[in-house]
Design brief:
264 residues, four-stranded antiparallel beta sheet
């Protein structure tokens, strides 16, 4: 009988814990309040759950309302398994996709500046089409058209019939003031320096920098025609510099210092 009582006691302790342990009562049992509040057993642990990556995906929430007089800073990130985007052939594909989308949208969608890095692309875009919360038309539809055209061309270049080219939905930020536009342009034009690509000089050949008309210095333009549409919005055409506040090449190198940069 004594052996049976000892075995029963050990079984109770294995289920409820030893008397006095944690927040259990004197007999080692959880009270009703302990069960309700989660004290002593279970409950949410610090640090539990899926960990956020170093660069979380763009959240699926309604995008900011686009207005036709505001340029947009867009970022596209490549999917895993896709090789580096910094090639001359891919740069030509970007220009072709820009022209094709502009023709298809009858000039209402214009890429005025771009910068191609190994795993992402920055672009400054103007779109005359308005988009609002009640429809999925306008800017977002034009962006999808551009993204799909570019993805099809990249897959063809890689010899693939299908496959993800972009690792996430595009990130878009409306530029609402002259200072925001100027900072975005400096950031785009210096992005290669931020990522440690210094062997190509201050002007990145995998960008629109050689065709950029806002430099303070006079540059020798490439013999090829301008691959992009000229800006039409007041902010991007005149407002950001107002005829005097142009971008100096030294400013690009200074902006590439880590302390002065935003995330890519």
């Amino acid at each position: 009988m004594a052996a049976l009582s000892s075995k029963s006691k050990r079984r109770d302790e294995s289920v409820w814990g030893r008397p006095g342990a944690g927040s259990a009562g004197a007999e080692g049992q959880l009270s009703f309040d302990d069960v309700v509040t989660g004290a002593g057993r279970g409950g949410r642990r610090a640090g539990a759950g899926r960990k956020r990556g170093l660069r979380p995906n763009v959240p699926h929430r309604p995008r900011e309302l686009h207005r036709r007089y505001q340029p947009v800073h867009v970022t596209l990130r490549r999917a895993k398994g896709v090789p580096s985007l910094r090639t001359e052939r891919l740069t030509r594909l970007v220009r072709d996709a820009v022209r094709a989308t502009s023709r298809a949208r009858r000039g209402a969608f214009r890429v005025t500046d771009f910068s191609i890095q190994a795993d992402h692309i920055h672009a400054i875009i103007e779109a005359d089409e308005r988009s609002d919360d009640s429809s999925d038309a306008g800017f977002s539809r034009s962006m999808r058209s551009f993204v799909i055209r570019l993805a099809l061309r990249i897959n063809k270049l890689l010899g693939r019939k299908r496959g993800h080219v972009w690792g996430d939905r595009f990130h878009a930020r409306e530029l609402t003031s002259p200072s925001e536009v100027r900072r975005a342009l400096v950031y785009l034009l210096s992005n290669h320096l931020k990522h440690g690509v210094h062997d190509v000089g201050l002007i990145d050949p995998f960008s629109s920098g050689f065709w950029f008309e806002g430099w303070m210095q006079v540059l020798d333009r490439p013999p090829a025609p301008r691959p992009l549409e000229p800006p039409r919005t007041w902010l991007l055409d005149w407002g950001w510099h107002r005829g005097r506040d142009f971008i100096h090449l030294g400013e690009v190198a200074k902006a590439a210092r880590p302390a002065r940069l935003l995330d890519a």
